[in-house]
Amino acid sequence: MPLSDGLDHEVRHSGHGTLVRRRLPGAECLSSWDEAALLRLVGRVSPLPVPDILDVRRDEDVMEMTLLPGGPLISRLAELDHPTRDRLGADLGAFLSALHGMPAASVSGLVPVDDTAPVDLLAEGAELFEACATAIPEGRHGAVERFLASPAPPPPPRRVLSHNDLGAEHVFVDEDPLVITGVIDWSDAALTDPALDLGLVLRDLGPGAFDRALDAYDGVPDVEELRGRAVFHARLRALEDLAYGIETDRDLYRHNALTAIATLFGDEG
After folding, report:
1. What is the pLDDT of residues 62-116, one digit of tens each?
2. Fewest CB within a 10 Å sphere: which of 2, 74, 198, 200?
3. Distance of alpha carbon 187 from alpha carbon 18, whole angstroms
């Protein structure tokens, strides 16, 4: 019985305590071979664990990896107090500082370049809002509509190696104490705006954790520019997760997305 019902992979337990993941035909993500090569590179610099690759069967697009302890943070978000959120935010900020500091040349040809213009992302956000508007309280519609009608930020001054899907479902934590035990699913990794990964910290853990992540993030020449783009991505990804939760009938995604939308759009009246 598969552990995952995602669109890109089928995941199963092996008979000896590992995970076997097969990339499904037509999936728009890294091949198992390329993802395994990426994980080996990231594992050398990341302050947080990533899965160890044990075997790759290139002809079958299958990868076998170690199991990380704990479980996905997404199922714990509702119970987190502010000090815990802040601590997790700082840990993720240090992790992203190391990840984004990797030379782009080291992964050139291994991951794609995502250079989607912010104005095009904003147009996609309008489509997402149309798909999920009925689930958003009417009092919040004006704030969302003003955001979608506002100018998009300029393109990022640099592109870095990004996890590109660093939602709480891909951050694993221990039961007690609540510490990060690893970051999984690197199949969407790309060279793209560093604000995207940071925006997902903001979306899932809130403003305080986001501030702690920025504090731990080294080498930013213009923090306010990065902050503005991160807010932009956080808002779009909150709409995306809500639309996804509605489409797949996943209450956890709907609940967390609505919580994020209330925070991210709450200051706009």
Report:
1. 999 999 999 999 999 999 999 999 999 999 999 999 999 999 999 999 999 999 9
2. 2
3. 18
What is the rounded distance in angstroms from the CA atom of residue 152 to the CA atom of residue 155? Answer: 9
At 173, list the tokens.
Answer: 């934590």
| Cβ atoms of 208 and 89 closer than 8 Å | yes
Q: What is the dihedral sign for C-alpha 88, 252, 28, 261?
A: negative
How many other β-carbons are positioned within 10 Å of the β-carbon of residue 225?
Answer: 15
DSSP annotation of 164 reads S
Residues 152-176 have pLDDT tens digits of 999 999 999 999 999 999 999 998 8
Radius of gyration of the chain (CA): 18
* Alpha-carbon torsion (224, 227, 233, 234), positive or negative: negative
- 64 forms bridges with which residues in the sheet? 20, 55
Residue 244 in contact with residue 256, Cβ under 8 Å? no
